[in-house]
Amino acid sequence: MTALLENFGIHVVNQFNVSLVCGNKLFATLALIKAGIPTPKTLTAFTEEGAFKAIEKLGYPAVMKPVVGSWGRLIALVRERDSAQAIIEAREEMQNALLQIYYVQEYVKRPPRDLRVLVIGEEVAAASYRYSPEGDWRTNVARGGTSQSCPLTDEIEDIALRAAKAVGGGVLAVDCMESPRGLLVHEVNNTVEFRGLYSATKVDIPRKIIEYTVKVIKK
To answer: With contact defined as beta carbons under 8 Å apart, do 102 and 54 qualify?
Structure first.
C-alpha cells in the first residue's frame, strides 16, 4: 500500500524504503552496521550446514530469529546442538523460503530487560524498560512483558537517533540492550506499537505523531 501511494505522489509516514528495511531483520542489521551502530554479533546462513556453523561460531546459547516477524514469534534461544538440530529441521520441513534464511545472533549478557526508544523525526520522544514475563527471556509487551519509564540520557538519545537515521527516519521504535560493551541496537520497528511505552511514561505519543505528520506534510 505504501509503495502504491508513493508511486502516485502521496506522502506517507513511514516511507516505503523505511518499511522495507525495518521489515526484514537482515536488511535492518546491514543498515545499522553500515552506519556504525553497535549491534549484537550476527551471522546469516542459507543452508542447514551453514546454520550449524554460524551457531557454533557464536557459541551456545545463541538466538535464532526469522528475518521477517514480530511479537517475538519463532524466536528461539538455542542452548545446545540438539536444540539447534530440532529447530533447523523443523524450519526446513516448513517449506518456507524465508524460514530457510538463518539469522543468528549472540545471546547478549544483559539485565532481564531491554529498552524501547521512540524516535519521531529528529526527536527522541520517550523511552521505557521492557521486562521479561516470568518464565520467558523475551521482553515483548505483547507476550506479557511489562514496561517501566526509562530516563533519557545522552547515550540513549544519540544511539536511537543514529539508528533511526540509518534506516531512513520517520516514526520508529529503536530497541536496545544493555551489554558489557554498552548499548546495542537489536531492532528498529517501523510499525510502532506504543501501548506499553505510553502506560509507562504518560507521554502523549499520539499527539506527537500527529504533529510530526502535519509538519512533514506542510514541507
So the answer is: yes
Q: Which class for 188: exposed (0-12), middle (13-18), buried (19 or more C-beta within 10 A)?
A: buried
At 46, is the secondary structure helix, strand, or coil? coil
pTM: 0.89
Angle at 82 between CA 80 and CA 84, to 5 degrees: 70
Task: For residue 82, give its domain range.
Answer: 42-106
Contact 208, 156 (CB under 8 A): no
Q: How many helices (H) and strands (E) does the chain have?
A: 8, 9
* pLDDT tens digits, one per residue of 1-43: 999 999 999 889 999 999 999 999 999 999 999 999 999 999 9
Q: Which CATH number belongs to the domain containing residue 93 in this structure?
A: 3.30.1490.20
Cell, residue 189: 520497528
